[in-house]
Design a protein that fits this description.
This protein has about 260 residues and is mostly helical. The chain has two domains: about 1-30; about 35-255, MetI-like fold, CATH 1.10.3720.10. It contains ten helices and no strands.
Length: about 260
């Protein structure tokens, strides 16, 4: 059995074990209000998927998540390069980045409710929470650039633009893509959490909150499963394409 096949089998066994334990515990408790059975959740999810409202809600949350992710990537790329190149800027931004990392997500959401309209709160908070992750990854990539390559660039009189694309970019790529993958998963969590507290129109968070208020536990599980599935699909697609792009930037990593 090759490595990929072994990994696939282990993942399948893990999934089977998870749902088996869930089913056993749900049957043992026999209280759908506390823990519904997996079949109930899947049947409810199947019903939701066929509803037109489901598509609108998921699309709205997707747009917020991708908007926050795109803005965070752009800002972090700039900040990361500046911090990686300049020790003065690194010292200057150390405190605000540390504060952002140490502050609970809920605190930012509650404060943002005073500043923005409900639909913008999840986007703002998500950008704020993913910013340190991406910025530090880019900065680490810049600092890990081979000094010999930089010296060679000086000898051949590379312009700043040439250094950026031909020296720094290949070094930063693994860190940047790794940070983006982590930030994408975090974005989903923060956006939905922000929606639960800000309650914007047409959002997964609002539906989850409404289901919780009405004690519709099956709906809470169904929507949660939908979010987890969408997050996994997005991360898998993103991971696949970034891996291909990374292999082009660093062909030698394929042999590692």
């Amino acid at each position: 059995m090759n490595r990929k096949m072994r990994k696939a089998v282990l993942i399948c066994l893990s999934i089977i074990l998870f749902f088996s334990l869930w089913h056993i515990i749900a049957v043992k408790i026999s209280a759908p209000l506390v823990l519904p059975e997996p079949l109930q959740v899947f049947l409810r999810l199947a019903e939701l998927i066929t509803e037109e409202e489901f598509q609108k809600i998921v699309a709205s949350t997707l747009i917020r998540a991708f908007k926050a992710f795109a803005i965070s990537v752009c800002i972090s790329a700039v900040f990361g390069v500046i911090i990686g190149i300049s020790e003065d800027f690194a010292a200057f931004f150390q405190f605000p980045l540390s504060v952002i990392k140490a502050t609970p997500v809920v605190s930012f959401i509650l404060v943002a409710l005073f500043w923005f309209k409900s639909s913008s709160v999840p986007v703002f908070v998500s950008i704020l929470m993913t910013l340190p992750v991406l910025t530090e990854n880019v900065a680490t990539g810049i600092k890990s650039t081979d000094k010999k390559l930089l010296d060679m660039a000086e000898v051949y009189c590379f312009s700043s633009r040439q250094k950026l694309f031909f020296v720094y970019a290949p070094s930063v790529a693994p860190y940047f893509f790794s940070g983006m993958l982590s930030a994408l998963g975090l974005t989903w969590k923060v956006v939905v959490a922000g929606e639960i507290l800000s309650l914007p129109k047409n959002s997964v968070g609002t539906v989850l909150y409404t289901a919780k208020v009405h004690l519709e536990t099956v709906d809470v599980f169904a929507w949660t499963f939908a979010v987890v599935s969408l997050s996994y699909i997005c991360e898998s697609i993103f991971g696949f394409y970034t891996k291909k792009l990374r292999s082009r930037l660093q062909p030698e990593t394929q042999h590692e």
